[in-house]
Amino acid sequence: MIISFDLDGTLVKMDYVDAVWLEKIPELYAEKYQLSYEDARRKVEEEYLKIGPERLEWYDIHYWIRKFDLDIDWKDLLMSCIDKLEMYPEVKEVLESLGKENELIIISNAANEFIEIEMEVLGLKKYFSRIFSAVSNFKKTKKDKEIYELVCKEMGIDKDKLIHVGDNYEFDYLAARQAGIKAFYLDRKGNMNGSFVVRDLKEFEEKIRNRFI
Fold first, then answer.
1. Contact at 8 Å (CB) between 152 and 129?
2. Which of 34, 92, 138, 165 has most Cβ atoms within 10 angstroms of its Cβ?
3. Is the Cβ–Cβ distance between 171 and 143 less than 8 Å?
4. What is the model's pTM?
5. How many H helices and E strands in the chain?
């Protein structure tokens, strides 16, 4: 069986991504244009919203560095926030366990630059045979039904050989199910119930082992 994981919000806490976009970039903008941090953050967020999440630029760190004329390399920018980079506590145990009998992959909406840093710094790369970014690999702004179909095609597998788990109900659960993929919705806040809802990855592992899919 091939088991697919979302990355941010599933394996890795959102603090890191938020720190890059909502803290560090405004901080650099404030320094560049001699503004207060509050004014810089307001201006930066206004510019984000002008682009919006339906355009690829929204996810492109290179675009925003150029847009704001920031004097920093993309990797240095992402590395400057690694003190905020943290996995959920059960992640490595679950990956080690499931990886013994299954092939593990990543299907993420994040750009490859973010994925590369997160996987490298947290030591996650060794667990996964393939990593797919909707934005970088498929030029799509969301993990829709087609993304899961393309992943299966790329890997040369039938849809019934793939199971996906992630924390976004629409993009990790509904879209995968629409593609005919078995999927679980990771709801760490406990807002939803159902046979395909899990509270953490340990519960996901239990469902896999019990073949409750």
1. no
2. 165
3. yes
4. 0.91
5. 11, 6
